[in-house]
Amino acid sequence: MQEILFGTFIISSLVLWFWAITDITRSRFHRSNERTSWLLVVLFFPVIGSILYFQLKARFVSRKKRVFKPQFNKHIVSN
Question: Among 3, 39, 74, 75, which is most buried by a count of CB atoms within 10 Å?
């Protein structure tokens, strides 16, 4: 019975860890160094870091949608 509980804990910890890393890489943070800081926290302290990230995420992540403003072909298009 202990092996099943331990295995369940390990698998759920790994899922939470990968989910946190994926979410950190896809989120838009207010400051660029916050992404690096959270990645380091989650990598060095997988379980506690992941739980802390999901609890404190709202303070650091922007909820605004991205606006597509291409500037790369401005000289080609003539008005």
Answer: 39
